[in-house]
Here is the input.
Amino acid sequence: MSPSPPEWPVTPLNPDVVVRIGRSMPALSPEIEARVTSHWDAALSEYPHLYNGRVFCADVIGPDIIGGHWSEYRRVLAQMREPDLYGPQMLRPLAVVGLLRTRDGIVIGQRSEDSIYLPGYWQGAPAGNVESREGEAEINLAAQLLAECHEELGLEETDAQVGGCLLACEHPWTHIVDIGMDLATTLNFAALKERCRRLGNAEYQALKLLKPDMELPERLVPTLSAMLEQTR
Here is the structure.
């Protein structure tokens, strides 16, 4: 899905917005379950590494509180492939996205051309689904972002400092909701690139350093554009 018009809706968030679990995972009708299974099986044949983990989906998004429920990644992926699958009960899976500041400037990442979602687009780095990594019931957005720092960029907790939340930005077709967050590292850009090369998970085919008044690359995820706008 290309991030072209209609615009991605943006909701400003308070820095300490809270995420709460309000209900259990809903049951699917046999017909919808069969369609989910069909989409999942097709995706597995193309991307055998896919894992059906638990992901958090928002029911309500406000400046102070985001309420929702745990779902399955296979349900989210089925909606990505068939946007109207659930009708008015669409899933709005949360993702965390960092606005990463180094000593040199802001770092952004270009998604791999092999990515299942927005291949080749530039986004805030790191980024990833809000998921239940160890069966936890409570959701800590800062911890989620730090986990993505480690997986995608090879950063340890001592290398990165998570700031407050900035905004929520929703993809109008997949309904994935990016939670943009301030993020800083003590590393400079050269050291960060080396760390990512050695220890990252190849999520990005390139990293780029943005400095004030620098021309932005084409194909920016709108979440990144909205976060950069807040820094001006």
Notes: Confidence is low (pLDDT under 50) at residues 1-5.
